[in-house]
Amino acid sequence: MTTPAPQIPLIDLSDGRAIPQLGFGTYQVPPADAERVVSDALEAGYRHLDTAQMYGNEEGVGRAIAASGLPREDLWITTKLNNTFHERTAAREATERSLEALGGRIDLYLVHWPLAMHEDVARVWEVMEGIRADYSVDSIGVSNFTPAHLARLAEAGLSTPAVNQIESNPYFVNDEVRADCAERGIAVEAWSPLAQGAVFGDPQLVALAEQVGRTVSQVVLRWVLQRGDIVFPKSSSPERMRENLALFDFELSDEQLASISALHNGTRSGPDPDTFGWRG
Ligand SMILES: NC(=O)c1ccc[n+]([C@@H]2O[C@H](COP(=O)([O-])OP(=O)(O)OC[C@H]3O[C@@H](n4cnc5c(N)ncnc54)[C@H](OP(=O)(O)O)[C@@H]3O)[C@@H](O)[C@H]2O)c1
Predict the structure, then answer these.
(1) What is the pTM of this model?
(2) Is the pLDDT of residue 47 over 70?
C-alpha cells in the first residue's frame, strides 16, 4: 500500500503543463538499489521522480513505477540526455532506451550538461525539439545552462526550454541564473538543495531549525520552495524521505529566508557548467 501523496503545489511551465514542485532525486542511487529506494519513495508519497541516463538507474526506477501500480497520470518522471549522446542519431537511440526503461513515457527530458566548451548548444536543442515532436516526451528543458547558453538558443531562433535544472543551495544560491530564467519564463529546478549533505553541520542552520522546531533539511527545503523553485532531495532512508516531504505545514519569514540566502559563499557541490566537459 502506498501512502496518499501529500498536497504538493504545482508550478506552471511555459509549455502549458504543470509540474509538482517537490519530488525525489536519484543521483548516486546505485542501479542495484534503485528499485527498492524508489519503491520506498513512492510508498512515502513522492510522485515526481528525477533520474538521468548518466545515473545508470533508469531501469530500477522503471521497475519501481511498474510495481507501484500507481496510475501513470499521477506521476511525473524526469530524465536527462547523457553527454555522450548529443548527436541526433545517438540522442534518438538513447531516448528510445530511456522510454523503454521508464515505461514508455517521459514527462520532462533535459539536456544534462551544455558541453559548451565542445559544441554549439543550439545543435543539441534542435535535436531535443525533434525528439519532443516524434516521441512520447511531453516537456523538454535543459540543465546547467548559464545565461549565455540560454541567450544562444534565443539567438538561434529556437524554442525556450520549459525548465533549467541548476545547482542551488544555501552555499551556492545561483541567483544570477535564477533571475535570467525568470526573465525568460523558464522554471528553475534546484539540484543538490542540501549541498549533498554539507548543510547539516552548519551552526546557523542548526540554530534556525531549533528556532522553528524543524530539522535542518526541512528548513533548507522550505527555503527552496518559498523561493519558488522546484526541488527533489535524494535520500536512501524511508524516514528521511518522509521528513523531506513534510514541508507544507510551516512557513519561514522573509528575515529567515534572507538569513539562509546570506550563507552563500560561492562553494559549488558540483562542476562549473562553463568548464565541465565530461563525455563519459
Ligand atoms: N542536473 C544535474 O547536473 C544534477 C546534479 C546533481 C543532482 N541532481 C539532481 O538533484 C537531486 C538532489 O541532489 P543530490 O542528490 O546531489 O543531493 P541533496 O539532495 O542535496 O543531498 C543528498 C544527501 O543528503 C542526505 N539527506 C537527505 N535528506 C536528509 C535528511 N532529512 N537528513 C539528513 N540527511 C539527509 C542524503 O543522505 P541519505 O541518502 O543517507 O539520506 C544524501 O547524502 C539528485 O538526486 C538529482 O536527481 C542533478
Answers:
(1) 0.97
(2) yes
